[in-house]
Amino acid sequence: MKFKVYHYHDYQPKKKLNKKKAYWLAAAGLFLMIFVIGDFLFSLLAEYIWMDSLGYSDVFITILSARILLFAAGFLLFSCTLFLTLLGIRRAYLHHFFPEELPFIFRQRKLFMISSLVMASLYGLLGSSVVQGLGWERFLTYQNQVSFQVRDPIFGHDIAFYVYSLPFWNFVVSSLLGLVIVILIIQGTAYGLAKLLWRDRGARIQFTLSVMLLGGLLGTKHFLGRYDTVLSDTINGFQQKSVVYGASYTDVVINIPSAYLLGVTPVMAAVAILVGLYRKNWRLIAAGPILYVLVLIGVQLAAWGVQQFVVTPNEFEREKPYLEHSLTYTRQAYGLDNIRQYVNTGSGVLSEELLERNRLTLNNVRINDPRPLLDVYNQMQTIRTYYQFNDVDVDRYPIDGEYHQVFIGARELNTENLPAQAQTWVNRTLRYTHGYGIAASHVNHVTPQGQPEFLVKNLPPEGSLNVTRPQIYFGEQNYSSVIVNTKVDEFDYPEGDSNVTYRYTADSGIPMTRFHRFVYAWEEKSPRIFISGLITEESQLLRKRNIMERIKSIAPFLQYDQDPYIVVRNDGTLVWIVDAYTTTRYYPYAEPVRTGFNYIRNPVKVVVDAYTGEVHFYVVDREDPLWQTYANIFPGLFEEKIPEDIRAHFRYPVNLFTYQADIFRTYHMSDLEVFYNREDMWAFPTEKYYDQDILMEPYYITMQLPDEEQEEFILIQPFTPNNRQNMIAWLAVRNDWEYYGELLLYRFPKQRTVYGPQQIENRINQDPYISQQLNLWSQGGSRTIRGNLLVIPIEDTLLYVEPVYIESDSHTSLPEVGKIIVAYQDYIVMEDTFEEAIDRLLEMEAGDVRADGQQSGQDEQTPLIVTAEALVDQLADLFNAYRDAMSAGQWEKAGRIMTEIEKQLETWQQQQVINQTAPGEEAEPVDGEEADAEG
User: Fold this and answer.
1) Banded model confidence at residue 282, pLDDT cuts 50, 70, 90
2) Which residues contact 19 (CB under 8 A, 6 or more apart)?
3) Omega of the bond prior to 460 within 30 degrees of 0, cis?
4) Residue 739 has what DSSP assignment?
């Protein structure tokens, strides 16, 4: 019996394609492609025009060029690989099957080619989008990297290798691995189902080539993986952790040497598969993957065994040199290696002379809290519902020749709060275009009604700071684009029953030429921009008016602080200042913070003009290698000459300081054994806010540092020992330009107790008079708000200051500063003003006033400090805590609680005797036995 052999080029289908339908489909596909590509190109053009108007077109072109290069390379690699794979599969199928046995698309060469090109193009687009999106920054930093001038102690590479080169090569290998795995899945499915690997030589060649590539790439990944040991604390695949962040004893003994074995094993496995395919030996084919898996598991088990049986029994000695590496490199990564350290005894005596020497410090003690203050600003200074204060920040200004710390906030426009009938395109785009002015207040002054004493207020702004250009076109709100200098006058600010209008005077927007109108009408999806007769050639488009969106679009490679703050310049104009960070998670041996990075610097301050939108990237730290790399990539982006009136308002960012303080809680320890045992761990203290204990955050104060001649703007963070409440130290960073960024640590002696913030809060709660007053104010539809408890170091003396706000339960209530609590050593007072509290403390220190507030020799009856009902409630709480401690076996804690119970009872008995004593009589002391008997 003879069979006729069909070749694919001889076969003709019985039915022809519906050409008309095919043409319509092709036309629809072409139109969709043109629309998508056109929309993308219009977006690029709109972005370029905007960047060019700001003077940053070079930055745009540099990033776009890198993206296009990687996109083209990725598209060619991914699409061509898939296209050739599909052609090979069709050839093998046509060679071994009759045409009628194959799907229709396999028989039509032209249709198959078109379909394959479409699939390959889509795959190329997908792959290249990932490559250019994730790879452009790695590519540019790899090409322009700057040395850190520091080498790691294990491999001897410069830190730049880990920050730039290693991420780039890992990205390349991972991208190729993804491509090869997809191709292998397609080939394995297509050839495996048809059993063509045994029958077709071309299929075997394709498949084995892919297998060899997979083996080589896996080997390369394992070879590069040995460097990952200095970037992790994970020992093995069982998630076993080391006490060291970075390469540990087990890494050096097992994981690094085994990386060479693991690098060779996948190649050997690929060779075994290759030989097995050509010999048609399933055992040899299976032996390759099995060998790889066994070696992989063996290495993990070896690492687990060494860690479990060699390291753990004598961990400190085994890990000692690596602990040293972790300590040294973590300090370097967070800029903690040059902290100046001092001893602060905290035992100074409060006196008139001390206060006089530090008068400016006392004059700037913050008795307002920015958290409730924001509500006050929004109720007292918004004037109209469409205005809004988003934040109240702390800054400093020279006022009347003196250095003053102030609160300041920007009055921004929120068009969402306009009435519904005013939510028109003309109003939102042409008329309501900007916010107006600022409000500012003293940090240490309040009115007799407990409200902030404003330095700048009202519309137009009036006060101690001269604001000459109050219009705010760019700010923190989620602003949409607006068009200025149209035939519609802009709303400026309300005045009586009418509104003042305004015309934009700067030339910093995008000119509304016919071409630009067409581009942005497309980009904004708003045809009115193109057709509106209200827009003229003198009109300008103000785009990306949210300052965070604006600066991220210009320099997306920097990380930005989320707390911009407004500044009044010497000429009365307003600018925003935003801190920009350089970070990486690839610094060897450095322990990461919770957000993932393990290196951070603040080399750049970004300044955005609130009126023109002009953006400046000022350099404040030229020593940062990451910044130097970006400066090489974008030579025209950063500016070194900083205007003096802007430099005077630079603040060390709270977020950066918090990261440093968080790491320093552990890495302040210098003795390796103490560091290993975490014997001297520190913690952030807690404070009372409303009814909750919260972690104390760093805060700005104006103070004169020990050994310095004048007051400075300082950011400080107190520390307590871990699981204890007494204060052990405080960390400070200087903000004024001459010493900007200098870190100082003041330690308290360990042999004496210095009250911590929570201990002061507890003493406030336990003070009979203060707690009674706070309870009284919290009744009758009101509530008390405990503001920031600030620790104020004054030479060797510590003051603790906490404002108490009183607020009604009404939604429209205004928090009012009712009292000021000030503590010093064992004294706590609560007065109407800070000055009165200081005077009381001086009198108490001199012995003229008793702790309960009466002068010595005063014969009026001492008021009953605590009621019987309050005592019962306190004792009930203490007994519940005592019972819980006994149940948990916490004997020491239970003993302390019982001591407190006895103390409360004794205090009650003494108060009863005092209040029952006739005027002029002396109360006899009641000892513990008599108190118990009377009880």
Assistant:
1) confident
2) none
3) yes
4) G
pLDDT value for 873: 61
Residue 410, SS3 per DSSP: strand
d(CA 878, CA 857): 35
| Environment class of 383 (CB within 10 Å of its CB; exposed 0-12, middle 13-18, buried 19+) | middle
Q: DSSP letters along 558-612, please?
A: SEE-S--EEEE-TTSBEEEEEEEEEEES--TTPPP-TTS-SEEEEEEEEEEETTT
> Which of 322-347 are b and which e, b meaning 16 or more Cβ less than 10 Å from the residue's Cβ?
bbebbbbbbbbbbbbeebeeeebebe
Q: Which structure tokens are listed for 738?
A: 């001459």
For residue 429, the model assigns a pLDDT of 94
Q: How far apart are CA 248 and CA 254, in angstroms?
A: 10
Task: For residue 446, list its beta bridge partners.
Answer: 452
- Quote the tokens at residue 545: 């008016």
In this prediction, residue 897 carries a pLDDT of 72
Strands (E), 326-414: 340-343, 387-389, 393-399, 402-413
pLDDT at 806: 84
**Cross-strand partners of 495:** 498
Name the residue with higher pLDDT: 119 or 776.
119
Rounded percentage of the chain residues whose pLDDT exceeds 70? 87
Helix then strand count (H, E) for the chain reads 29, 32
C-alpha closest to that of 787 among 755, 814, 823, 761? 761
Q: What confidence score (pLDDT) does residue 811 get? A: 63
Q: What band does 172 get if pLDDT is binned at 50, 70 and 90?
A: very high
Residue type, 179: L
Q: Which residues of 531-566 are buried (b: 16+ CB within 10 A; e: fewer)?
A: ebeebeeebbbbbbbbbbebbbbbbebbbbbeebbb
User: From CA 454, how far away is CA 175, in angstroms rounded?
Assistant: 59
pLDDT at 919: 36
Closest CA to 68 of 49, 44, 46: 44
Per the prediction, the chain carries an average pLDDT of 86
Q: Write the secondary structure of 629-678 as one string of H (helix), E (strand) and C (coil).
A: HHHHHCCCCEECCCCHHHHCCCCCCHHHHHHHHHHHHHHCCCCHHHHHHC
pLDDT (tens digit per residue) in 548-559:
999 999 999 999
